[in-house]
Write a structure and sequence with these properties.
This protein is α+β, with helices and mostly antiparallel strands. 20% of the residues lie in helices and 27% in strands. It is globular, with a radius of gyration of 21 Å.
C-alpha cells in the first residue's frame, strides 16, 4: 500500500453528536471503509491528473499530474478523438508539496470546440490510460460549466460526507466543458486520515479525478484552504491559473463569450478586499466587456447573501463587493460556504437600498440586476450542526427567489450567445437520481 493514500490512525476526537451519527450511518461506514481502501491503493503509474486553462481556452489545455518517481519524463501524448497518430508535448516540473513530482505540460495549437484524447507519462516508459477532454469554443460558441464547492472527502469517520461520491459521479455524467471549484475541499482540520496536509491534498485530487481529467478545474479558495490548518500556498501550487492579481488570489479568463472572475473571499465576517483588489476587479471586467464578453460571472467562496445559520450573510463583503459588481455589469455571482442553496432575485442598490429589478422566478434580461447564488454543500454537511444549515428567518428574506436546505447541490450553467441557463441540481447522496431544484435564465433578448 502506498504511503500517499494510507489513512493515519488519528481521526480526531468526535463531538457528542458523532456517536449517534456513527450508529445511524453504520452501513455507510462499511461502504466508507471500502472507499478508503480503494483510495489507499495508490497507482504505480501517474495519478492526480487534472486540467486547467492558463492560456487561450479555445486552442490550449494544460495538464497536471503526479508521479512517485521524480525522474519520470514530463510528457503528454495527445490526438484529436478518433485519430490514430499521437502527438507529443513536453512539459516540466511544477513545484509543490506533493510526494514524488508534480508535472505540468500545456498542449497548444489545438482546434476550438474539439475533443482530444490524451495520456501522461509515468516511469520507465509507462503511460496512463487515455482520457478525453475538449477545448473551449471560439467566439460565441456554446458550452456548459459546473460550479461545485464544499465537497469534503469520501468516507469521513463522522459520516458528514454523505453526498460527495454521488455529486462527483453526477457531474461526471453531465460532462461539462469547465469545472468552477468554489473552495473548501478536504476539511483537513477535521479529517486527518492521511496524516499531513500535503498527503490530504494528494488524496483530494485523486478523489476529484473522475471530473478533473475531463474538464479544466478552475479554483477559488475557501476559509478551510486559507485559515483552518491549511494555507493558500499548498493549494495554489497544485492549480495552474492565469496570473491575475495578488499572487493569483484573483484571476480571470474567457470561455466563449463568458468572462469568469475568481475572487478571493475566504473570511466569514470581514470585507477582506483591498482598494487595489477592488480596482483590479473593476478594470478586469471593463476590459472584458470592451473585448465583447457578454456574460460576466464572478465566483467566490463566502456569500454576501445567506440566510443560513452556520454561515450567515457576510455584510462587510456585501458592502465591499456588491457596488463593484453592480457597476461592472455582472449578471450571476456564484458563492458557497453555508451548507444550503439560496438564490436572490436580480438585485440593485446593495448594500443600503436593496431592490429587485424583477420578481420573475425564471427569466431575466441584460437590463436586470445581479443574481447572487449560494450553492452548497457539494457533498459534505456542516461540522457546526452536523447537518445542512438551518434558516435564520422564516419566511425567507424578501430578496430570496428560491432556497433549499435538504440536499447537496451543484449548479450547471449552459452558456450560449443568446442566454445563460442555470440549473441547480439537488443530490440526496443515497443513489437516487438528482433533481433539478431550481432553474432560471438570463437572456440577451426578451423574456416575453
Amino acid at each position: 500500500m502506498s504511503a500517499l493514500l494510507r489513512p493515519s490512525p488519528s481521526q480526531g476526537r468526535p463531538g457528542k453528536w458523532t456517536q449517534a451519527r456513527r450508529r445511524m450511518f453504520w452501513p455507510l461506514w462499511i461502504l466508507s471503509a471500502a472507499a478508503a481502501a480503494a483510495l489507499a491503493q495508490a497507482p504505480s503509474g501517474p495519478d492526480q491528473i487534472h486540467l486547467a486553462w492558463v492560456e487561450e481556452p479555445s486552442t490550449t489545455l494544460t495538464v497536471v499530474w503526479r508521479t512517485l518517481d521524480p525522474a519520470a519524463p514530463p510528457l503528454v501524448q495527445y490526438r484529436p478523438a478518433g485519430s490514430a497518430k499521437w502527438l507529443t508535448a513536453k512539459g516540466g516540473p511544477r513545484a509543490s508539496g506533493a510526494r514524488g513530482q508534480l508535472h505540468e505540460a500545456t498542449l497548444r495549437s489545438l482546434r476550438p470546440a474539439t475533443k482530444y484524447e490524451y495520456r501522461v507519462s509515468g516511469s520507465q516508459g509507462a503511460w496512463s490510460e487515455a482520457y478525453t477532454a475538449r477545448t473551449g469554443p471560439r467566439g460565441a460558441g456554446s458550452f456548459d460549466a459546473v460550479f461545485v464547492a464544499d465537497t469534503g472527502m469520501i468516507g469521513r469517520a463522522d459520516g458528514l460526507a454523505t453526498g460527495t461520491k454521488q455529486v462527483i459521479e453526477e457531474i461526471a455524467k453531465l460532462d461539462p466543458a469547465l469545472i468552477l471549484w468554489g473552495g473548501d475541499g478536504a476539511y483537513y482540520n477535521t479529517d486527518k486520515r492521511w496524516g499531513t496536509l500535503e498527503d490530504t491534498i494528494d488524496a483530494w485530487f485523486e478523489q476529484m479525478k473522475p471530473i478533473a481529467v475531463k474538464a479544466p478545474m478552475m479554483p477559488t479558495y475557501g476559509n478551510h484552504e486559507i485559515f483552518l490548518q491549511e494555507g493558500y500556498e499548498p493549494w495554489a501550487a497544485r492549480f495552474p491559473t492565469p496570473e491575475g492579481f495578488d499572487k493569483r488570489q484573483y484571476y480571470s479568463f474567457d470561455v466563449g463569450n463568458a468572462h469568469f472572475i475568481s475572487i478571493m473571499a475566504a473570511n466569514s465576517s470581514k470585507g477582506e478586499h483591498s482598494p487595489e483588489a477592488l480596482n483590479w476587479i473593476e478594470q478586469d471586467i471593463a476590459a472584458a466587456k470592451k473585448r465583447g464578453q457578454r456574460w460576466i460571472i464572478p465566483f467566490m467562496h463566502v456569500a454576501p447573501f445567506s440566510d443560513g445559520s452556520n454561515h450567515p450573510s457576510n455584510l462587510n463583503l456585501r458592502k465591499q463587493m456588491c457596488p463593484v459588481l453592480e457597476r461592472a455589469g455582472a449578471h450571476i455571482v456564484l458563492t458557497s460556504h453555508d451548507q444550503s442553496y439560496e438564490r436572490t432575485y436580480p438585485l440593485r442598490g446593495a448594500p443600503d437600498s436593496i431592490r429587485p429589478t424583477s420578481t420573475s422566478k425564471t427569466c431575466y434580461t441584460l437590463q436586470d440586476g445581479v443574481s447572487w447564488l449560494k450553492v452548497s454543500p457539494g457533498g459534505k454537511m456542516s461540522n457546526i450542526n452536523g447537518r445542512f444549515a438551518q434558516w435564520l428567518t422564516n419566511p425567507a428574506p424578501a430578496w430570496t427567489a428560491f432556497r433549499d436546505n435538504t440536499m447537496h447541490h451543484f449548479a450547471r450553467l449552459r452558456i450560449s450567445d443568446g442566454a445563460v441557463v442555470v440549473e441547480v441540481f439537488g443530490v440526496s447522496g443515497d443513489g437516487r437520481p438528482p433533481v433539478v431544484q431550481d432553474s432560471f435564465r438570463y437572456t440577451n433578448g426578451s423574456c416575453k
